[in-house]
Amino acid sequence: MQIHVQVGDVLAVAADALISTANPWLNLSGGVNGAILAATGPATQEELHAYLKSQGISAVPAGTVIQSSSGNLPFDCILHAVAIDPFYDSTAETDLLTLSTTTSLDVYNTRRLPVRSPTAPT
């Protein structure tokens, strides 16, 4: 695997998938998620909330990765990696980041997504 670092708008990067951090409630607000919401309108947010409803839950645990469509963004899909736990011990922050990153890559590999070049903000 090769890793390339670029500076710029992550929503404009030529990649097959966007890996974006998410909160447990899958609300698109602020930062990259706010930009996703602005770019796709309510469709992506509605898709994420429909997932929660279909599962009969209001939130997902840290480390969970949910795949959504990408609307009009130039990606085949968006992987929403829940990298925060509102009740976690701050000393576990690195562990949560590692877990969400490895889970995203596992989802990418096990679902055999047609993705060769994922992108993620830093």
From TrEMBL:
Q: What SUPFAM superfamilies has UniProt attached to this entry? A: Macro domain-like (SSF52949)
Pfam families attached here?
Macro
The Macro domain is annotated at 1-122
Q: Which residues form the signal peptide?
A: none
Q: Which domain of life is it from?
A: Bacteria
* Name used for this protein in its record: Protein containing Appr-1-p processing domain
